[in-house]
Amino acid sequence: VRVSIGDDAAVLAGDEKPSAISVDAAVEGVHFDRAWLSLRAVGERAISAALSDLAAMGSRPRCAVVALILPDALLDAELYELVDGIAEAQARYVCPIAGGNLARGRELSITTTVIGAQNGRPLLRSGAKAGDGLYVTGTLGEAALGLIALQQGNTALAPRAVERWRSPRARIAEGLALAASPHASAAIDVSDGLMQDLAHVCEASGVGCMLDASALPVPAEAHAATALAASMLQLALAGGEDYELLFAAREPVEGVAATRIGTFRREPGIALHDGHGRPLSLEVAPGFDHFGRTAEK
Amino acid sequence: VRVSIGDDAAVLAGDEKPSAISVDAAVEGVHFDRAWLSLRAVGERAISAALSDLAAMGSRPRCAVVALILPDALLDAELYELVDGIAEAQARYVCPIAGGNLARGRELSITTTVIGAQNGRPLLRSGAKAGDGLYVTGTLGEAALGLIALQQGNTALAPRAVERWRSPRARIAEGLALAASPHASAAIDVSDGLMQDLAHVCEASGVGCMLDASALPVPAEAHAATALAASMLQLALAGGEDYELLFAAREPVEGVAATRIGTFRREPGIALHDGHGRPLSLEVAPGFDHFGRTAEK
């Protein structure tokens, strides 16, 4: 074992190409609610979320194994729906389900272990250096916006965000490009929210970061946040489940569409500024402490 | 993926040495009860049960990843106890825990994915041939005897069997020796009970089996079965969780202590005889249908 607990995936040495391995669980009532998500989407989402950890290491998916805990009340048709979603993800990511386990339980859960092949060096959380740029793929806060729309029963306000929360995509191609680039120095996937995941990178790398609030790439439906009584800035900073890749790089990485949102520096901690150098306080920002997410890394 | 769902583990091609991968879950109230098992034993047992599937493939353990679903009511001290048991198994099997995941849930469960290196060819369920002998390591029915003693609150009658149920051992060394032998043709671990696991081998191999009831290796405390209102023969035939290796071989395999308990044959199905060629009926045997175990392979 070359890289162990504490990164997105563990890396096993000894093969021609090192293997990366990671595990993720989705529990009904904690990670998903069937009122908001079809069982098909639950299955698809479980695979995407697990593969996102491989993406963050720059690994190519090789296979997955899936352990299902199934309540007695689950109908066969519901199980098939769940399995259909898993099969859809298997096809999309060309990631065969190599094995599985079925167990009875009171609570539905899906635990997915994914194995990847490491073509280049693994992208660790610990490689960011002072002076590196902080980049993120795609947009931030979109999944959280979708979740809030669902919670408030107002999906018409942000249909794309709802779909984004329901059906996230692991950034496999981007992860492979980052691992192949000499410029990328660290990466993590944004599953717990930008602030929390960035803090993991800073801590592992022994650096701090200056974050530019005005640069955060917000989704097309950002305008809906106000109507949903939310702050788009807060969603972008603290909302989880976007499964974008957050990475450190000396300069932009060719072939990876990403936005530069900050700069790593020697001083520890994460500081936020407004784009004109004026500091923004994280503490007083409404909502930031009220997401109630628990770190599950 | 060279061998997929339907064997004890999946085998991945493409590495210098193929990898074997398997996943197993233990759910509180379904697979264990804290009244009978310390959390330390729960953790240790989860790793042993998962590694038993690698043993049945003839794989050497490389690493494991463990996903825990933890109820809010679980105390920190209880979590540490569980982790201690996992660590103990990690040391015993020289199988590093390479990664993990913690999630909240209402029901405690441990899902263990194990990765092994395949030095020789994998031992499949499908290789048994008519004429091969059927062998089993260790004893059969001991774990079931221990479980009954626990259920009846009479552990003093069969203390070794209780310990065997609480703390099973994966037969890693035996599996490696079998995979290295030219004589062994198929293997499975006895997790669901002899009859059920033998049926898996027969079905996968397209053969039947003649089983000698008088040859079944019963535990030293077999005499306690009567006092516990159980039949030792039934426990040996249908009791699960022994985690012994059941294998087919043309002749005894050097270095693997095992008992020959039958012979594979062309006629499908499993027939039982009493050692003098007199058939025994499985259907009328008391208790056989009342174990209520569900197949989880």
Description:
Two copies of one chain form a homodimer. By secondary structure, the first copy, chain A, is of the alpha+beta class. In chain A, 29% of the residues lie in helices and 26% in strands. Chain A has eight helices and twelve strands. In chain A, the strands form two sheets. Chain A has a seven-stranded mixed beta sheet with strand order 7-9-6-10-8-11-12, with helices on both faces. At the A-B interface, strand 2, strand 3, strand 4 and strand 5 of A face strand 2, strand 3, strand 4 and strand 5 of B.
**Mean pLDDT score of chain A:** 90
Describe the strand arrangement of the main beta sheet of chain A, using strand numbers. 7-9-6-10-8-11-12
Radius of gyration of chain A: 19 Å
Poorly predicted regions of chain A are 284-297
Strand content of chain A: 25-35%
Residue share in helix of chain A: 25-40%
| Shape, per Cα inertia axes of chain A | globular
First and last CA, distance of chain A: 18 Å
Question: What distinguishing features does this structure have?
Answer:
297 residues; 29% helix; disordered C terminus; 7-stranded mixed β-sheet; alpha+beta; homodimer; 5-stranded mixed β-sheet
Tell me briefly what this model is.
With 297 residues, chain A is α+β, with helices and mostly antiparallel strands. Chain A is built from eight helices and twelve strands.
Helices and strands in order:
The structure is a homodimer of 297-residue chains.
Chain A: E1 10-12, E2 19-27, H1 39-57, E3 59-70, H2 76-92, E4 97-104, E5 109-118, E6 133-137, H3 142-151, H4 159-166, H5 172-180, E7 184-189, H6 194-205, E8 208-212, H7 224-227, H8 232-238, E9 245-249, E10 258-265, E11 270-273, E12 279-280
Parallel strand pairs in A: 3-4, 8-11
Antiparallel strand pairs in A: 1-2, 2-5, 3-5, 6-9, 6-10, 7-9, 8-10, 11-12
Helix pairs in contact in A: 1-2, 1-5, 3-4
